[in-house]
Amino acid sequence: MTNSAQIKYPYFEEATSAEVVNARMGSDIDERFREVMSVVVKHLHAAVKEIEPTHEEWLAAIKFLTAAGHKCTEWRQEFILLSDVLGVSMLVDAINHRRPSGATPNTILGPFYVANAPRYANGANICLDGKGEPMAVSGRVVDTDGEPVSGAQIEVWQTNDDGFYDVQQKGIQPDWNLRGMFNATKNGDYWFRSVKPRHYPIPADGPVGKMLGHLGRHPNRAAHMHFIVTASGYEPVITHIFTPDCEFLDQDTVFGVKQDLIAKFQREDPADAASPDRSGAARWKVEWNFTLARAKS
Amino acid sequence: MTNSAQIKYPYFEEATSAEVVNARMGSDIDERFREVMSVVVKHLHAAVKEIEPTHEEWLAAIKFLTAAGHKCTEWRQEFILLSDVLGVSMLVDAINHRRPSGATPNTILGPFYVANAPRYANGANICLDGKGEPMAVSGRVVDTDGEPVSGAQIEVWQTNDDGFYDVQQKGIQPDWNLRGMFNATKNGDYWFRSVKPRHYPIPADGPVGKMLGHLGRHPNRAAHMHFIVTASGYEPVITHIFTPDCEFLDQDTVFGVKQDLIAKFQREDPADAASPDRSGAARWKVEWNFTLARAKS
């Protein structure tokens, strides 16, 4: 078990504490795990040395982690929430989805994706509960040279006008409300109807919600729609588009907003319609292209 | 809610990810909490950037934390174990107990301390189950000038010869086995009898034990006795002494061993005794002085 690193750091000393811990690893272990844990220990000790926590502060951290663990169930993942609100989920996503300039950026999948959404023809309305401000979405799937990608598949999901996904309101919303799968034409075109998305809070009744409160932060996600766009020969894209007028646009609590994902939501104002705004029948038009990067071979 | 830091970093970018997260804190929050969380986020993001985890590795970390949380009960604290085996507990202890040169170093209290141990006269034997190799401990409590500290109180606790504390074996060991409280004389002298301590494993049947396995580490603590020494006008000392011949001395799984806490354990070999070793009646003699630092006023 003893190795040369360990002989150099046999006993605990404050100055070399991380080296002492890392020298303890065995010689015959998974090399990636060694690398990962070395970095974890290095930064953990550096953070403790910078913070210089009191015993009580250390214990508060232990209790926070314990409460987060106890909050986790089959249906609730408090540590993923923690990762989300500390920007770690977006960072891991960014690291794993570096793309050529111009390609649509990736974002996190989020907890509300459900596979096997209904397949619709272009033009269908995915809003099944009739609530909210009508919206028409259309655009094209192109490659990084601007050429159309034919036969791409576009999957979309979003909250209803009350700020809930169908799976959060089973029995209240129609099944598969505001979810759909579309195929782009051979020119890469797609189009469908929906309603303007709304902001909504992440679950804030646990330790992470309490932490957000102490940080002076709110639990709201900026209003958005989710997309997965796939096409043979291209890297799949998991992404969002955001409404530009949401009050939480620059405060999305999971840091999902990227500058390049803020769409234009244009109010359709047909001259022949009588005061569409005042009647509550305003319509929104969104044009959005997805730019796919070629798959790495 | 919007402040100047936030305006500088409105949306997520990989390069400035930690700054984006920290800029989100409110202006009217506890300043110490702001400082602590800024450092946590900074090092968390730095670690993620250095590790570049895959999605699967990130999920493995989430699952590890969840399993650790689920292992915690009123009687089991898996996150403290995690803190212990990563050297964090010792580091926090060291940071909070920096002492003048020569003073007895502090160590962690550990989970097996119980208040209100029986008070004995010097010379008493704290071993109530008759197991193990007899040992005589004696020494003096002095200040950093080497002058005796009169009337110091010395509290001691340790495992029995099977490697368990009394509280781990209620009904098997006598209550208060191997625990005692002594008062030093006016010259600072103390002395008592016990048995030579044994190494023992920390609870290794949970996620932290599994992690230790993947790190090529064992769960054993080096053989030791615990002490708390207090005297009016001096900083209390929570400390260990370690046996020099324990096979785990340079591999204590919670990094409790400090060079200055390794005692001499001398075998008493009275010329007039018939083969004390072979009879199993070997006796050990330990001389150990505690050096107290004056309390900060």
According to CATH, the homologous superfamily of the largest domain in chain A is Aromatic compound dioxygenase
Helix content of chain A: 25-40%
Q: Which quaternary structure do these chains form?
A: homodimer
The CATH topology of the largest domain in chain A is given as Protocatechuate 3,4-Dioxygenase, subunit A
| Amino- and carboxy-terminal Cα gap of chain A | 42 Å
- Rg value of chain A: 24 Å
* Beta-strand content bin of chain A: 15-25%
Main beta-sheet annotation of chain A = 5 strands, mixed
The CATH architecture of the largest domain in chain A comes to: Sandwich
GO molecular function (chains A, B): 4-hydroxycatechol 1,2-dioxygenase activity; catechol 1,2-dioxygenase activity; ferric iron binding
Pfam families (chains A, B): Dioxygenase_C, Dioxygenase_N
EC number (chains A, B): 1.13.11.37
InterPro entries (chains A, B): 1_2-HQD/HQD, Catechol_dOase_N, Intradiol_dOase_C, Intradiol_dOase_core, Intradiol_RC_Dioxygenase
Task: Explain this structure.
2 copies of one chain form a homodimer. Helices cover 25% and strands 19% of the residues of chain A. In chain A, the strands form 3 sheets. In chain A, strands 1, 4, 9, 10 and 11 form a 5-stranded mixed β-sheet that branches. In chain A, strands 3-2-7-8 form a 4-stranded antiparallel β-sheet, with no helix packed on it. A two-stranded antiparallel sheet of chain A has the order 5-6. Chain A folds into 2 domains: 4-82, no CATH class; 100-292, Sandwich (Protocatechuate 3,4-Dioxygenase, subunit A). Chain A is globular, with a radius of gyration of 24 Å. The first copy, chain A, is of the alpha+beta class and 297 residues long. At the A-B interface, helix 2, helix 3, helix 4, helix 5 and helix 6 of A face helix 2, helix 3, helix 4, helix 5 and helix 6 of B. Chains A, B: Its cofactor is Fe(3+). Chains A, B: Its EC number is 1.13.11.37. Chains A, B: One of its GO terms (molecular function) is catechol 1,2-dioxygenase activity. Chains A, B: Belongs to the intradiol ring-cleavage dioxygenase family.
